[in-house]
Amino acid sequence: MMKKGFSWGVVLGLALLGFSRSVGWALNKGLSFPLLSSYTQSAFVKGTILAFEGIIGLLIPPLLGYYSDTLKSKHGRRRPFIMAGGVLAGTAALMIYTAYAMGAPLWGFALTLAFFYLSMHLYTAQFRALMPDTIESGQRGKASGVITLLEWAGNLFLFGLAGYLIAKAVAETGESEGIKALAQTPYLKIPFIVTAVFLISAALFVYLIVREPKAPEIGEDERLKDYLKSIVENRDFLKFYAAQTLWWMSFEFVAIFLYGILAYILHGSASEENVKAVTSLGLYLMALFNVTVLIGALPGGIVYDKLGRRLSIIIGGLVFALPQLWGWFITSQAEIVIALAIAGLGWGMLMAASYPVIGDLLTHYEKEAFTGRYYGFFEATRSLPVLLAGVIGGAIVDLAGGNYKILFPIGAVMVLLAMPMIWHMKNLEVQTNRLG
């Protein structure tokens, strides 16, 4: 494999790809729940449909990441997947709007969401693997900080755009419910069109401009069964993947059910009318959260390289968890704003610090040829929480009589349970010491 360095061109290309993907995921997070509220009031049904993303993300990235490691193509190991996935994901975004606008039944709308999730996950592992493929271990924290910064800027962009369009639609229609006002105007299509343009353009840009290093020679390849077995047998990988599953499940509890949480806190219940009434506020709060994530992301990456892996991850996790413990006692919009802003700082640090871990472990264990499959499993442990949080979170809320606030303390406990796993990873800090 050719010698790696630090190329700002490569990092910015990956950051642009991350930006576009985040625009796509923000479209899902920002509009899918309120649009589904037009079909059903059941938290369990809505959570289960949104959990399709978790099912697909649990299966596709580990498999396609595995096979991309051994792909022999003049176009590279990762870029063909990136181009195909980006084009299909952009097309799927347009299909979601079309299905809703044409009055498709619930099952039809759910299928378009599932196709979008499938398209996005066709290249999830390949996108993640490109960074450790092209950046040497001692520079990955800095690269992760920049990529994480742009990823969450994509969320901020989409949430801000959707919030602005809803405010504009409310002013023009006089309708008090944000999503209902948006649906009555031509503005509803704009976020879907913009998302499609970003997804397709970024994928084509990376395919045409970014050059992958020559693939390393694989002396003794891992069979699929051996690869999965090695994750269970290697305690460092197992502890990290388990910890990541816990903190992403905590995040997804709030991300999936934010509108229900807001409606319950501010209006006493998450009825269709109350959910639609808080849609505009929810989008602005998501934007605020992403602003503070951006603030936390870059220093989080720098701390990872300079001060140590364990410390940077644990600090980020604690800052993210503490506002959720407070969440059970929140009663006002001002308190929601403060809690989400603080949580965003911690989440930004946690994301920037956790992204390079798998790449560094692969370097330590001399498995750098296998970044696709291990980052595929990395993404699976980010998708499994969507499945679990959607189904379990919805069931918990229904069992609690519609009290969405119960998700806050449960999420905080999950983050706190993850921290000892990180602390006891045997070789997490070895890379830091070796790199000085």
Automatic annotation (TrEMBL):
Spans traversing the lipid bilayer:
48-68, 80-100, 106-125, 146-167, 187-210, 245-266, 281-304, 311-330, 336-362, 383-400, 406-425
Gene3D superfamilies named among the record's database cross-references? MFS general substrate transporter like domains
Query: What residues does the Major facilitator superfamily (MFS) profile domain cover?
Result: 1-214, 238-436
Q: Which domain of life is it from?
A: Archaea
Pfam family example for this protein? Answer: MFS_1
| Molecular function terms, GO-annotated | transmembrane transporter activity
Stored PROSITE patterns: MFS (PS50850)
InterPro entries membership: MFS, MFS_dom, MFS_trans_sf
Kindly state which keywords UniProt assigns to this record, in alphabetical order: Membrane, Transmembrane, Transmembrane helix
Question: Any keyword Cytoplasm?
Answer: no
The name under which this protein is listed is Transporter, major facilitator family
Q: Which organism is it from?
A: Pyrococcus yayanosii (strain CH1 / JCM 16557)
